[in-house]
Amino acid sequence: MATNNVLERVYETLLCSPGMNEAVKIDVKMDRKSVLLLNSIIEAGINPNGESQELLKLVPAESLTKLKEFADDCLNKAGLKELSEKMKSLSSGK
Q1: What is the CA radius of gyration of the chain?
Q2: What residues have CB less than 8 Å from 41, skipping those under 6 apart?
Q3: Least reliable range by pLDDT among 12-21, 25-34, 61-70, 84-93
Q4: Helices 81-92 and 2-15, interaxial angle, to 10°?
Q5: pLDDT for 61-78, tens place per residue?
Q6: Residue 33 near residue 27, CB atoms below 8 Å
Q7: Structure pTM?
Q8: Cα–Cα distance, 64 to 37 (Å, whole number)
Q9: How many CB atoms are located within 10 Å of the residue 37 CB?
């Protein structure tokens, strides 16, 4: 539990850092299938016990790859890719 508490504090601190409220323009063009899938993933993340979890099991790997690339592109455009990687390493304990 101590690790989760530390990670939570680091994440809260980062969200309050200067510049985090600045708008980032991201031009997005996605097919409808990807938009629907993105919506399902967001809903599943917000409500992990919902039926969206079952829906995600049916998603083709290619579609998930496209969404992962989209998420990486958003992080790059916002200048947050390196920060995101460091946050992942904190949560994985590496």
Answers
A1: 15
A2: 52, 56, 67
A3: 84-93
A4: 170
A5: 888 888 888 899 999 989
A6: no
A7: 0.69
A8: 8
A9: 20
Q: Are 73 and 65 in contact (CB under 8 A)?
A: no
79: left (phi over 0), alpha (psi -120 to 50) or beta: left
What is the DSSP secondary-structure string of the chain? Answer: -HHHHHHHHHHHHHHTSTTTTS---------HHHHHHHHHHHHHHH-TTSTHHHHHTTS-HHHHHHHHHHHHHHHHHHT-HHHHHHHHHHHHT-
Is-contact 77 24, C-beta < 8 A? yes
pLDDT(34) > 60: yes
